[in-house]
């Protein structure tokens, strides 16, 4: 087979060994329009021709070998499907990662098939690469979803055992006519009921599109409610919760339930981060409010807990990401981010490993929707 093909990558009838067909230009146009990458390669993996999609995303193939064009590296891939097809004439499929000329990585499924002459000799190999990055992303999410459902079923099973324990204590208290036992059992029932309803509400929240119930509220008041809710349980773990509320944050148009959920999730995470931190004598969670630019409302939840390692920080807002094993569902920040998006707001964080973390929720100024 002769040297490299025309630099524009156009199929021409005189390009022997490719398609000895006067209509090659017509075929070329059709191949150019395909939404996948098509190349023709010789035994040395020189790219003899590429279609329009391939030239657009990977550039001019002239003088390049397959792995060079596709940004894989300077040496050929192990188990190269094109070489396998040259060796036995069969069709091979393989999943690979390619890098476009502007640095984007994509997962593709590659098919290699032989192009033969009239005597059945393999002249070249046609390789098609179909971008399956979005399918892979969905696949990853489904795997995560499966793991999460299994994890949640496990957590719910544990909670059910807690419920059973509570019911047993209540029944025993009734039998023994001991109000203290009944009270103790009932508290166990309520605690575990609360846990289950929390998980179920989070799942329902994530599973549908929802318009926030915007109302003119006093954000500091919601912060105080959340503070009251958590301060005792925090104290039981030796964690103090402090408030630093700016009086100027006295009115904003926000969904009160949404803000309550955001704060509860952030405070729960902050407390968890303190609970597992064994290095500090005193643990503190601080909830702050302040006005932002353009009359935004900014709410911060800061802790001096374990902090977030660099390798974890990129995954924090991923669906179902948790570092807490059975004890977490990875729904907290997912719900939080959804609520912030519904408000056209944002949630960010800064953290120093082993020192602590601050989450910053910014609610932009909004008008009440017209009645
Ligand atoms: N303040 C924080 N300090 C350290 N790590 C944090 C903090 N907040 C969140 N994280 C990390 O982010 C992960 C995801 O948090 P998220 O609230 O989404 O899920 P979770 O707390 O693990 O489970 P769930 O909230 O559903 O019970 C946590 O598992 C933890 O690793
Ligand atoms: Mg959480």
Q: Would you summarize the structure shown here?
A:
This protein is α+β, with helices and mostly antiparallel strands. It contains ten helices and twelve strands.
How is the topology of this model organized?
Elements: H1 24-33, E1 37-41, E2 47-50, H2 52-58, H3 66-69, H4 81-88, E3 92-99, E4 105-116, E5 122-131, H5 133-176, H6 179-207, E6 215-217, H7 219-236, E7 239-245, E8 252-254, H8 256-275, E9 283-291, E10 297-303, H9 310-313, H10 332-342, E11 346-352, E12 356-363
Parallel strand pairs: 7-9
Antiparallel strand pairs: 1-2, 1-5, 3-4, 4-5, 6-8, 9-10, 10-12, 11-12
The structure holds adenosine-5'-triphosphate (ATP) and magnesium ion.
Helix content: 40-55%
How much of the residues is beta strand, in percent?
15-25%
**The CATH homology group name of the largest domain:** Histidine kinase-like ATPase, C-terminal domain
The quaternary state of the protein chains shown equals: single chain
Structural class: alpha+beta
Give the distance, in angstroms, between the N- and C-terminal Cα atoms. Answer: 75 Å
What is the highest CATH level, the class of the largest domain? Alpha Beta
> What's the count of strands?
12
Lateral arrangement of strands in the main beta sheet: 2-1-5-4-3
Radius of gyration: 30 Å
> Under the CATH scheme, which architecture of the largest domain would be assigned?
2-Layer Sandwich
* CATH third-level topology of the largest domain: Heat Shock Protein 90
Bound molecules: adenosine-5'-triphosphate, magnesium ion
Count of folded domains: 3
Globally, the shape reads elongated
Order of helices and strands: HEEHHHEEEHHEHEEHEEHHEE
* Count, helices: 10
Could you tell me the mean pLDDT? 89
As residue ranges, the low-confidence spans are: 1-20
Report on the biggest sheet: 5 strands, antiparallel
